[in-house]
Specification:
Elements: H1 2-47, H2 55-84, H3 86-89, H4 99-125, H5 127-130
Helix pairs in contact: 1-2, 1-4, 2-4
Length: about 140
């Protein structure tokens, strides 16, 4: 009997593996965006006059990376919102511990992390609106 239960738990975990990955994608995109923007700008400013790009081109790259990051996070957020499925069943609490409750909870958690990551990316890019050069 325990063998059957173990196989069932492994099957349920395998079904939720994409949901577990989806939780991490928003914060990972945010972190990569942060490192690319601030690291790239630091390298550009450290090179000074020998830099290959002008600061206007760096700002354009920031806009492109930010739009790509926001689009990726929005896509994962939309997938998580669909998994949460709160509109269809109007069930705000998932406290029964069933596999459906776990599935919806993981969607809810991933959606909230996507929202936080979206805001984080916007705030990381905000200084580049006001900064005009490296000094």
């Amino acid at each position: 009997m325990t063998r059957i239960r173990e196989n069932e738990e492994r099957r349920e975990f395998a079904e939720e593996a994409p949901s577990l990955w989806r939780i991490t994608f928003g914060p990972v995109i945010w972190a990569l965006h942060f490192v690319l923007l601030y690291g790239g700008t630091a390298v550009h400013c450290a090179r000074g006059r020998q830099a290959a790009l002008s600061f206007a081109e760096v700002r354009l790259a920031v806009v492109v990376f930010t739009v790509l990051a926001l689009a990726g996070i929005a896509w994962f957020g939309w997938r998580s919102w669909s998994q949460w499925d709160v509109i269809a069943d109007r069930e705000w609490e998932n406290d029964k511990g069933t596999s459906e409750d776990r599935h919806q909870f993981l969607g809810h958690a991933a959606f909230l992390l996507a929202v936080i990551s979206f805001i984080g990316v916007a705030y990381v890019a905000l200084p580049f609106v006001f900064i005009e050069n490296c000094r």
